[in-house]
Specification:
Chain A contains twelve helices and ten strands. In chain A, the strands form three sheets. In chain A, strands 1-4-5-8 form a four-stranded mixed beta sheet, covered by helices on one side. A four-stranded antiparallel beta sheet of chain A has the order 2-3-7-6, with no helix packed on it. In chain A, helix 1 packs antiparallel against helix 2. Chain A is globular. The longest helix of chain A is centred in the middle third of the chain and has 37 residues. With about 400 residues, the first copy, chain A, is of the alpha+beta class. Chains A and B meet through strand 9, helix 10, helix 11 and helix 12 of A and strand 9, helix 10, helix 11 and helix 12 of B. Chains A, B, C, D: Belongs to the acyl-CoA dehydrogenase family. Chains A, B, C, D: It holds the Pfam family Acyl-CoA_dh_M. Chains A, B, C, D: This is Acyl-CoA dehydrogenase.
Chain lengths: ~400, ~400, ~400, ~400
């Protein structure tokens, strides 16, 4: 079975249809609020939408069943998250948006039972939000994680974190964050990076500001966060000391794939709007749908959508088989981020001036999808990795010459 | 001489340098206000900037000297307007922004002396603003001007205009508009379209709303404007009855070229920011400027800039020789609109998350330039014209087969 | 299972490995002959390679087992034909090249038992070659099949075919052709098109010339073929009279997908050469593999390859489930034809002057893959279909507005 | 005056028209020979065409008048060489093809009067051909000239050259070559590279082979040339010892621009063929010229042609003013090489199967233009230079921060 054919699995088909109805009835109508305010979704909106999703039995599709989620596999997520992404507010409503969705995955994989009880349970239940503090402003860790400057040292039985993070999505209002910091050798652990679970009410953690950004679709915004002598106990360490970069990979590969799923849904929405426009609008004596240049844009959208879906499905299927799929998810992310941008751009173009007006949500989509070519690894960084991996694989396959 | 070498003309070089200094000292600092407010420039800001420009002797570079402008040729405008466009607020400050700049040109070419005195003089002097009401919402005249639905009929010694226009830039606060309406045969004039000069305080003209749009760089916004039994006297006719489509061409060809000049300036600004970033930011052990993929983006920007400049220069030079240059300005518009979008997009990408934040104005540039592929003739409409014209020209050149 | 994971099916994995070894040992060494001659593969070469394939038990992977083939499903073909396509001569060697492979499929689906015995059996066994005569020179049926001009009429108990075909691949030396002709209403069959099986020794069929073409990879060339009062008996009708256009679809959808598989293999070969070059060649103080612009080309190739594979796999999987997959195969064909061209082009570029020399086969690959954007439906024609189908699907899904 | 308006200069307009007629009457008809043979132009064909050009007073438009040429400025060359390039054989016919045209320029600028008499005079007169031996096979000087491995040492009053060159255009049949070799410090000259004029009958110089290449449009082919203890007297040094890299720049900047001019002419030819096809061929009930996707290709060709012309004109104009125009010619070369490839490719696509057949010369054009993205500096190398230059220029303009 592939994710594209939930018809093979009637339960998945039924779930997909329920998500589709929910998105149409609850999420899409709420978008107007976003378009009109030009601001981030409010906490109140989140609570309202998530309550509706909980009533519909659709909350937290990616979270483990044990913590109240639907426990979907990656292939199943590809169906459901794409459907959710059909609205800008769908993933938030279903509690499967970034960064919470990625944090759930990471806690599920790495956290202790006590940490899961304390952090994962309320997150999966929609009681709280969280964030993930890795990226730093220049000259810190951006595209190149090895430039990490936030550090933690061991002092009197506690870790003390110092550093500045930015573009920390959802930080304002989050109950806690996972913070990545450079750590020295410690009690047998190697020097490296360590992830810490830090409660938002820790006096050493401070939200400096909301960064005003092209995209505004994330509740809690993109924030600058300062850690100043932020003391956390040893049990705040997520997993093991010194393994932060490895855990980042655990989080990143699936997280970038779920990003792709959600944005693919939005791209499908843009294309549906373009198809509707093409079927209705006339110019130069024809329906747009019968004009060659419009057909070309519509067809290129179909091709981009199909290739995006196929790349996502393949990577998801590999992950469900237990593989890392780093190469595949990196390729999918790079392609989908660019494809989604092209698709929305063509949909805007097909609408003419209406497309850049906020009478429709397309202009907002344009703003929301642009940063995806930068977030979660800029396209250039992924391409560098993809090329290096390909050269290594080929060189290994050839053996000594 | 070409516009690229004002050194050949010391006066032009000196003018360019003064514009450059003015933009750096007055226009760029004022941009922060736009970025922070997320709103259109205010009338107050316009007045402040234009007063500064007037003091500097730089007001209205495209307006005839007779009306207080600098009376520059198109080739000279290519130098000065590009320099002005280096800031989002430069053209407004110098009173050479759309739509006023195009209206000045049209009035200069078509209006009666009385109309020039009444409308052109205060416009060129920065005392008032104006707008140009041609585009209509679906199913009216958008890409295809032949779908014009606004109409005027002759009734008791006056013209009575009825219709709905939208995306009328600068309408709110404008002293008057030029309105394009379909007219029947009248007193020897053929049926067709006619342009009317309509004062904003005419009770038949009403600003319905500001259309919330992806771009917000125009003072007075993009408005929806309703004409309801709007009565205007015979002397409100601009030029001759029935010649509206011909006058639209008079306005459009140079207006789209001055658009190109201004946006080219902004693209140059984005590239300068990208070059600075590349020279300063390090990643993966190198300056960005030494990384191949960054070099490729920087080089592609240089190429796009050079080709844009050259196409603009060539069309301007033809116009200065008295040619229509419809084909050339259409080609320039199509290329430049797309090139400018690519250039700003690459500059954003080179800045990573900083590029999509409003800490820099780049994200705003991205929003402002996107609609240029739609305004003043969508790229698809220009391509259709370019192709048809090329086929006709070739067929004529071959003669009978 | 997907085609990408033959490891899940040890028999398929084993078959793939044997094809890989065969291609490396037999097909690739024979390519030099093609490169040096600049000519089509000879009949002698075909017989030699197919004899080797038969010895290796690899002949006719797509043909039914009943006729001596391997009877692979489309998903299995995706593995094996891609592997075969790794050499320009691999598909010919395995007897799964166009047009024979498509003809086998069509005969298997549509022909009578007698026709299968007479035509399919020797074709699947490699005893003869065949061709498919549909395309016509201007103003006949090219991109637009409705412009079909070849016609047949019923005369004295026989069909009489008249018309001119061109770009008939493999015609010279083929034992027979399937010829598409316009037919009138006949004995209860509707007017339309009919397919005829015509033996090459029919005096009414004549090979006019080999068309000298950019690509030369097909044995028997691309020929112009003239049918002049070509009489064939009623049993020459393939399937039913008047259903030719429907049968063309039966042939085309899978045939374009197997085309994609084969060319994908060649693209993978080009990429492997590019990876080898990048790992070995130094310039500007680095290995090419460490230069950003080279990495970008290599990564773009990986992305194009992955997306091509995924689109092919998805369409093949649908076909194996009994679906037509017209939309999916059309999308795959359009994307893959363009992707393959890009991949080979980048591989050439990475090799510099060596890439355009015939010291390597890359320049030949460049010539061979270019026409794929035209053959089997030009990209533009596919895009038109893709767009129309999408508009129809969306309009139907929305229901009455 | 710009090159685009020879009407301003009646003599230039008249010259252009004569070249146009000559190309139509002499060069284009001779192309069929090339298409049919698939081989390089023969020496016999060169002599025949150049005799006709000499009769028409059109020989050697770029050579100084003193040596029998027309002594055109770069801007004038832009008119005439583009016109010549309208046929693959036009530049050869007029004796303004590579590499002779570049060698004439270099000798004119650097050679001694004696060298000019001996080498330039017969070259400009069409009596002999020449070549330019710089490029080396891997791991020598390709994209990166600093990897030069051919060397010369001073031995007993003579220079002794050793090394292997390849892709030496026109070597077979050339009367002499300019050979670039690494030289040590010598008699006050610094270590570096030196250019030597070497007669083809020097026993130390040997044509190893014609390299079979994708392009075959150059008489004398692309050859591999071996220098083995090749002794040349001191007066064989072109210019000064140790200044070879500087002279390479003297030759390269204008030579790459004249390349652009010639290929632009061929691209114009391809577009004219596409326009003719679009006006004549029908499909789907319309002329191609009325189908949107065809219009898009035709329009993109017009845009690419216009931008190419404008970039060439600007660089030529700068050179005529005495500037190096390295940046501008590098930008022009990169853009034009890619644009020309796109234009020919689109023209092929618009012709369908006919476009890839050799019934038309388009498929040959496709082969001939592809290497231009590699020759004279691969696009990637130019982009690296363009980016570095831009960063340096910007950094200098900003001054200390």
């Amino acid at each position: 079975m592939t994710v594209f054919d939930p018809v093979l699995d009637p339960r998945l088909a039924e779930l997909r249809d329920r998500v589709r109805d929910f998105v149409r009835d609850e999420a899409i109508p709420a978008e107007r609020e976003l378009v009109d305010s030009g601001a981030e979704p409010t906490e109140e909106l989140r609570r309202r939408l998530q309550a509706a999703a909980a009533s519909a039995g659709l909350l937290s599709p990616t979270a483990p069943r044990r913590w109240g989620g639907l426990g979907l596999s990656m292939s199943e997520q590809a169906v459901v998250l794409t459907e959710a992404g059909y609205s800008l507010l769908g993933p938030l409503a279903l509690n499967c948006a970034a960064p919470d969705e990625g944090n759930m995955h990471l806690l599920h994989r790495v956290a202790t039972p006590e940490q899961q009880e304390k952090y994962l349970a309320p997150l999966a239940g929609g009681a709280v939000r969280s964030c993930f503090a890795m990226t730093e402003p220049s000259p810190g860790a951006g595209s190149d994680p090895s430039m990490l400057r936030t550090s933690a040292h061991w002092d009197g039985g506690a870790w003390v974190v110092n550093g500045r993070k930015w573009y920390i999505t959802g930080a304002d209002g989050a109950a806690w964050t996972i913070c990545m910091a450079r750590t020295p050798e410690h009690a047998g652990s190697p020097a490296g990076a360590t992830m810490f679970l830090i409660d938002a009410d820790n006096p050493g953690m401070r939200i400096v500001r909301h960064i005003d950004s092209l995209d505004r679709g994330f509740v809690g915004g993109h924030c600058e966060v300062l850690f100043t002598d932020c003391r956390v106990p040893p049990e705040a360490v997520l997993g093991e000391v010194g393994r932060g970069f490895a855990y980042a990979q655990v989080r990143l590969a699936p997280a970038r794939l779920t990003h792709c799923m959600r944005w693919l849904g939005l791209a499908q929405r843009a294309q549906d709007m373009a198809l509707d426009r093409a079927a209705e609008r006339e110019a130069f004596g024809s329906r747009l749908a019968d004009l060659g240049m419009a057909q070309q844009m519509l067809a290129d959208n179909e091709i981009d959508l199909a290739a995006s879906r196929a790349l996502i499905a393949h990577a998801a299927w590999l992950m469900d088989r237990g593989e890392r799929a780093s190469a595949e998810s990196s390729i999918a992310k790079t392609f989908v981020a660019e494809a989604v941008g092209r698709i929305v751009d063509r949909a805007v173009q097909l609408h003419g001036a209406l497309g850049v007006s906020h009478d429709l949500p397309l202009a907002l989509f344009l703003r929301e999808v642009r940063p995806f070519r930068i977030y979660d690894g800029a396209s250039e960084v992924h391409r560098m990795s993809i090329a290096k991996r390909a050269v290594r694989r080929r060189t290994a396959a050839r053996g000594p010459q």
